[in-house]
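Lab manual, section 2.4: Encoding a predicted structure.

Procedure: take the sequence of the chain (210 residues), apply the prediction step described in section 2.3, and record the output as structure tokens. A sample record is shown.
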Amino acid sequence: MVRFITFEGGDGTGKSTQIQALERYLAARGRAFFSTREPGGTPVGKLIRRALLEIGNQPIGTPTELFLYLADRAQHVQDVILPALANSKIVLCDRYSDSTLAYQGYGRGMDLNVMRDLNKIAARGLKPDLTLLLDCPVEIGLSRIAKRLEKGTAHQDRFETEAAEFHERVRAGYLEIARAEPERFRIVDASRSMVEVANDIKNLINRELA
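Recorded output:
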């Protein structure tokens, strides 16, 4: 049974927007769900999120970055995700362990096998039942971010300031991860309009939750 659903994708792919759309859809149908995110899904995680994403130009070493994400995940799984699943809720999570592999592994170049082992420890072996990978060309994602910044509706985080080459590596990493686990991943074309993407996700979720 599908209970733990994660949303993954590069910057500007629309994950948060699509989670909100799915929340409204599930609520209208009386489904019990809980939405959360990484980093920042716990009080400890909120502090870690500030250190990771809102520190401005202060450099953070790649191993430091990795261990902060793992610490956030360990607390998140213990305090939030496992209790919600125990209460028979559908858990919607904005980013999870695949983000660590894509960003710190493929993006930063850290050892993927070591990271997989560390992820298992931090997550207590908990894997998503279903992962929706929102995928679009990097230039589209970055242009969306630029438009939000121009409108003043968002603040730029550390990853959004990275060069396009970094985001290309992240995207390629996500697609490679998805190809390795086709039974868990569903790749959603996020280059289309918000409504088109939301309709695809609703139809997909209907099939998975049937």
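Check your result against the sample. Strands lie at 4-9, 33-37, 90-94, 130-135, 185-189.
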